[in-house]
C-alpha cells in the first residue's frame, strides 16, 4: 500500500516534500559538480577563475569534487534513506540542511563576489526547509511522552 492507514496524511506530505527537496538539491549538485569537474576553468558556467582569488583553489576541480559529495551524492543518499523510512532519516535530513547552509555561507565568506541570487536564494531556502522538515519528521517519529497518555 502506498499510504499506511494509521499514518496521518500530513506525515506523507512532509515525507515526500523532503524527498523532492533532497533529489532536486542532489541532482542539481551532481549536474553542477560534473560541469566543474569536466571543465575546471569554469568556462561552461561562464565563470572566470578570478572568482577563486583569495581562495585556496586555482581551478574549479576541487570545489567541483566537494560539491559532488556534499550537495550531490549525499542528498540523493539521504533521499533514498528517507524513502526507505529508516529511523535515522530525520537526523540525516537535518545534517543535510546544515551542510547546505554551511556550504553556501563558506562560499560567500571566502568570496562575497560569488553571490548568485539565482542559486543562493533557492539553495538557502532548501537548507532551511530541510531543517524545518527534518525537525517535523523527527517529532512525528518520536512524539513527546505525555504523563497522562
Detailed description of the structure:
The structure is a single chain. The chain has 149 residues and is an all-alpha fold. The chain has a domain at 16-34 and 70-141. It is built from four helices and no strands. The chain has helices at residues 9-38, 61-83, 89-110, 117-141. It is elongated. 26% of the residues are buried.
Number of helices: 4
Q: Which percent bin holds the helix content?
A: 55-70%
Describe the sheet with the most strands: none
Low-pLDDT regions: 1-5
Using only CA atoms, what is the Rg?
18 Å
Mean pLDDT: 87
- Sketch the topology as an H/E string, one letter per element: HHHH
Name the beta content range.
Answer: under 5%
Q: Could you say which structural class the secondary elements and strand pairing correspond to?
A: mainly alpha
- Number of DSSP strands? 0
- Please tell me what the overall shape is: elongated
Distance between the termini: 29 Å
